[in-house]
Amino acid sequence: MYPEGAPTSTPVQEILYWQTCTIKMMYKAIALVIEEEGLDTHPTDYLGFYCLGVRGDSQPEDLAEPETEVESNLREKNRFPIYVHSKMLITDDDYIIVGSANINQ
User: Fold this and answer.
1) Which among 1, 22, 57, 75 would be 20 to 30 A from 94, CA to CA?
2) What's the Rg (C-alpha) of the chain?
3) What angle do CA 27, 86, 22 make, to 5 degrees?
């Protein structure tokens, strides 16, 4: 069900930890600029993170039995994650990065 592995496994938890660190760093950098400029806005006005998913009328037939409560809940709501591996960044129509380099480096 999860291309990266079980969500509770050590490798996936490590990935989630570093993704969270990156997100916090990005929000902090934007918040500092907002404060310096004296703007009446919030970092979420400029930055958003989304988890893609798909909701279907039926479940795939080749799914293994759910191993955790989270997997059971996802199945019950007929919601499945979409795995997207993409490394592309477009910023303010001025900069674009496309390729295999990690964007957060």
Assistant:
1) 22
2) 18
3) 20
Residues with Cβ within 8 Å of residue 95, at least 6 apart in sequence: 89
Alpha-carbon gap, residue 11 to 44, rounded angstroms: 29
Rounded-to-integer distance, Cα 32 and Cα 47, Å: 14
Residues 79-105 have pLDDT tens digits of 655 555 666 677 777 777 776 655 554
Contacting residues for 15 by C-beta, under 8 A, at least 6 apart: 4
- DSSP state at residue 13: H
| Pairwise CA distance, residues 56 & 29, whole Å | 38
**Which pTM does this prediction carry?**
0.50
80 contacts 53 by C-beta, under 8 angstroms: yes
What is the per-residue pLDDT across 55-83, written as a single tens digit (0 to 9) for each?
Answer: 666 666 777 788 888 777 767 776 655 55
Instruction: Give the C-alpha separation, 52 to 82, whole Å.
Output: 6
